[in-house]
Write a structure and sequence with these properties.
By secondary structure, this protein is mostly helical. It folds into two domains: 445 residues, Up-down Bundle (Growth Hormone, Chain: A); 56 residues. The protein has 22 helices and two strands. The protein has a two-stranded antiparallel ribbon with strand order 1-2. Helix 6 packs antiparallel against helix 7, helix 6 runs antiparallel to helix 10 and helix 19 runs antiparallel to helix 22. The two termini are 33 Å apart.
Length: 526
């Protein structure tokens, strides 16, 4: 028999703090983690093989750039749309739709004989991948109380981190020993497994039962159209700027202005409609929420800028193979896992998250700053420590900002706030690649001109790696070109350090919020 003291102690503990997953909830969480592994693997496997794909399909540096960016754009844009529609049509149903798009895109990429087909496949893959990412977030919000959510969501983070770690290495190995098409063939077993898991284990009941007609009427189709159209146009223009067309050209400015008009129209529509909208404006109700979303944006920006340009540095300046460039990413990706998981466990235990955001941004800023030590002969210990520091900080921010956004949001908005976190982080990825691409290309072009070399080398920098490998180490042209590459990378590292510092300052605006929130959801595990 428990004593009265024990009963009193137990009564002081909230239901959320005592919550334990049942078998059906654990099966859902494990299934989502395995599906997340597939998406993470696909998102990073191209990092070390883009130059080989460009060479095999006779593509330009711009087309190679879009092979990565097209996926990131559609992944970001469709996340809030899929999350919103899933509230009406069902989480499991939209997860299956997302898996279908991901599989269809993978098939197109695997059989592509030219870049238009490859880019189309990558865009369709991105829709599916974005849906899987955001639905993993919102389903955890449906079945796990906020206080315990970080601890259990670390399963997904761990799977995502493993996929991100092995992706670049697998991509390099497959390309060197088989064909680049295997970076897509490898997805098919995972796609099949994903469908099995989604059908038999990710099973959720909706509290409200609606007819198909009611579901169609309740979905904000106009809002979805305005959001997709505006965001797509804006991001395409942003991605073109400085890479495909000059920033002051009509080709760049026109889609940016059209996209901005579309986004403004979307916000006006939300204010006009008010109920059953694609996004509840209440998720942006305070300064802390805006600051947290900015941190999510910069976290995605930094992770993918680093994920793209660090291997590029090893491939070009250091002359490493695709496999070795992927292996060299290990310090960042391996230390990102404990950074994420330790913060997840501690925030669940302490019920506090701001300390991790602030410490994480300090470490991330220092890590990005250490990249400026990279040169032609940087010792392994130096670049490995720099990458490890960056990985720890990024991992801490990754988890703590996610938790913070959900703690800041109102209970009824938690799922869509989690989806918006995923959108902002995913949005930062193509923005980071686009801005850093412009910065790198302009800095490299300027250096090439000052050294008496044609600036066109900077516009085809991925392909020029293969030219460098045919030159003698003492060739003056090779030495000068490497100096230009280094100058371009240095400007990217400075850019990363500056934006990390800006996120640290903005993060200080986040106020204290209680993590002891009741679990309110229209979906339950079955």
């Amino acid at each position: 028999m428990p004593s009265s003291f024990d009963e009193e102690a137990l009564s002081k503990k909230s239901a959320e703090e005592l919550w334990k997953p049942q078998k059906k909830e654990m099966l859902i969480m494990v299934s989502l983690s395995l599906i997340a592994l597939m998406v993470a693997l696909d998102a990073t496997i191209l990092v070390t093989v883009l130059p080989d794909i460009a060479k095999a399909l006779n593509g330009s540096s711009v087309e190679a750039f879009w092979a990565g960016t097209s996926y990131l754009l559609t992944s970001a844009i469709f996340q809030p749309v899929i999350a919103s529609i899933s509230q009406v049509f069902g989480r499991q149903q939209l997860l299956l739709v997302s898996l279908f798009f991901f599989t269809l895109g993978t098939i197109l990429c695997a059989v592509a004989q030219n870049f238009p087909v490859l880019l189309g496949g990558r865009s369709i893959q991105g829709i599916g991948g974005g849906g899987i990412i955001t639905l993993s977030q919102v389903i955890f919000c449906d079945i796990v109380p906020l206080r315990q959510r970080p601890k259990y969501f670390s399963m997904v983070l761990g799977a995502w981190s493993i996929g991100s770690i092995i992706g670049p290495v697998i991509g390099g190995v497959l390309t060197e020993h088989t064909t680049w098409r295997w970076v897509f063939y490898i997805n098919f077993p995972f796609c099949f497994l994903g469908f099995i898991l989604a059908i038999f284990f990710v099973r959720l009941n909706a509290v409200s039962k609606l007819t198909l007609k009611e579901k169609l009427g309740k979905t904000d189709w106009i809002g979805a159209l305005l959001f997709i159209g505006g965001a797509t146009s804006f991001l395409v223009g942003l991605s073109w700027g400085g890479v495909q067309y000059p920033w002051d050209s009509a080709q760049t400015l026109a889609p940016i202005l059209v996209g901005a008009f579309g986004i403004v129209s979307f916000v006006i529509w939300l204010n006009y409609k008010r109920t059953d909208t694609l996004l509840p404006l209440s998720i942006f109700y305070c300064t802390s929420a805006l600051a947290a979303f900015y941190c999510a944006l910069i976290n995605g920006l930094l992770l993918f800028t680093g994920l793209y340009y660090v291997p590029f540095y090893f491939l070009s300046v250091r002359g490493e193979s695709s496999t070795q460039a992927g292996i060299n990413l290990f310090p960042a990706m391996v230390f990102l896992i404990p950074g994420s998981i330790v913060v997840a466990v501690l925030t669940a235990r302490l019920g506090r998250f701001r300390w991790a955001i602030w410490i994480g941004w300090v470490i991330t800023t220092f890590g990005a700053g250490f990249f400026m030590l990279f040169d032609l002969q940087t010792a392994t210990a130096v670049w490995a420590v720099a990458l490890a520091v960056f990985g720890i900080g990024s991992g801490m921010v990754l988890t703590s900002v996610n938790v913070g956004i959900q703690a800041i949001s109102k209970v009824e908005d938690c799922a869509m706030a989690a989806s918006m976190y995923g959108f902002m982080r995913s949005l930062g990825m193509p923005i980071g690649v686009a801005l850093s691409g412009t910065i790198f290309q302009n800095a490299m072009s300027s250096k090439l001109t000052s050294l008496g070399l044609p600036s066109e080398i900077a516009h085809d920098s991925e392909q020029y790696i293969f030219v460098l490998r045919t030159m003698s180490p003492t060739d003056p042209t090779r030495i000068a070109a490497l100096q230009a590459y280094l100058h371009g990378f240095d400007t990217v590292w400075i850019f990363m350090t500056a934006v990390a510092g800006s996120a640290l300052l903005v993060g200080l605006l986040i106020k204290k919020f209680d993590m002891e929130k009741p679990l309110v959801s229209q979906f339950t595990a079955r």
